[in-house]
Each structure stands twice: as structure tokens, then as C-alpha cells.
Write a structure and sequence with these properties.
Layout lengths: L5 E4 L2 E4 L6 H14 L3 H5 L10 H20 L3 H9 L5 H27 L7 H48 L1
């Protein structure tokens, strides 16, 4: 009996690709494709052989078709529809189309999952707010203190200036 959400082949199995499991599916299917000697075709690093190499062309075509079948069969029905709409059997383009479409969705799902696990009112929220408030108060006190220091320096300076003017005035008398 086979699981309705898992793809199984002679090399192993993987959960079907869904909108939320792209990274784990990609790792699993990549391993299965590598064991089938077709991963390089999917990645676009193995190109079709010259047309006159008949047996090599036939082998390449078989591995390509098997790889496409493995990818297609390891996806949820809605993703199969997406693959069918691509209307081509270029494995590398199909692979890239899946990455572009589901990699971002998988990342957003992971972020959503993490955020859904975080309570709205964190127990340390008040402490954090208090720290921010106390830092703000500290900064205000520092500004006031530096303003007071400047004012007293100004008073000292103006007092020194008055004293030297008085001295100059008394020296000229």
C-alpha cells in the first residue's frame, strides 16, 4: 500500500512537493535523481550529446524522460498542473520554474510558521519596553547634564571675561 502524499521509486521516497516543503523536497528528489544518473541533466550541466551519437542520444533521452517523470510524480496534483502548463520537456527549465515558484513560497511559509509560534504578548515585552524607556530617560538626563555643564562653562567663561575686562579697565586708570 502506498502513501497518497509520498512519491516512492526504486531509489527511495520523498513527500510530494507542496507549496510549503520545497527545500526538503528538493534535497530528497535531488538524491533520487542522482541515484538515477539524471541529476546533471536536470541541473543543466549535462547537455544532450551530438545527434550522430545515436546510442548516447537514446540514453540521454531515456534518462531525461525518467527524470521528468520522477519530478512530475513527486509533486502534488496542483503542481503537476503547473508543470503540464509549461508545455515543454526541458528538465532544466522545469526545475528552474519550480524553484522560482516554490522557493519563495517555502521561505514565506517558514517565516509564517515561525511567526505563528511566537505569542503576541511576549513575557519579556514589558522589560524590553522598560529598558528602552530607561535608555531614553538616561539620554535625556545626559543631554540635560551636558546642557548644564555647557551653561556653567559659559558662566565661568563670561565671569573670566568680566574679570579680565575689569582688570584691563583698572590697569588703564
Amino acid at each position: 500500500m502506498t502513501d497518497a502524499t509520498t512519491y516512492t521509486c526504486k531509489y527511495g521516497s520523498t513527500p510530494f512537493l507542496s507549496a510549503s516543503n520545497y527545500h526538503s523536497w528538493k534535497n530528497n528528489i535531488s538524491n533520487l535523481l542522482a541515484m538515477d544518473d539524471s541529476l546533471e541533466i536536470v541541473l543543466g550541466t549535462e547537455l544532450p550529446p551530438a545527434a550522430n551519437a545515436t546510442s548516447q542520444v537514446r540514453d540521454f533521452r531515456k534518462r531525461s524522460q525518467r527524470a521528468f517523470g520522477m519530478i512530475w510524480s513527486s509533486t502534488e496534483p496542483s503542481i503537476r498542473t503547473f508543470l503540464n502548463r509549461l508545455r515543454h520537456r526541458d528538465l532544466h527549465l522545469a526545475w528552474e520554474a519550480l524553484r522560482e515558484r516554490y522557493d519563495a513560497a517555502a521561505s514565506q511559509s517558514a517565516v509564517s510558521l515561525v511567526l505563528s509560534c511566537v505569542p503576541l504578548h511576549l513575557p519579556y515585552e514589558g522589560k524590553c519596553q522598560n529598558k528602552v524607556a530607561s535608555r531614553d530617560e538616561e539620554a535625556s538626563r545626559d543631554e540635560e547634564a551636558s546642557g548644564d555643564e555647557e551653561a556653567s562653562r559659559d558662566e565661568e567663561t563670561s565671569g573670566d571675561e568680566e574679570a579680565s575686562r575689569d582688570e584691563e579697565a583698572s590697569g588703564h586708570d
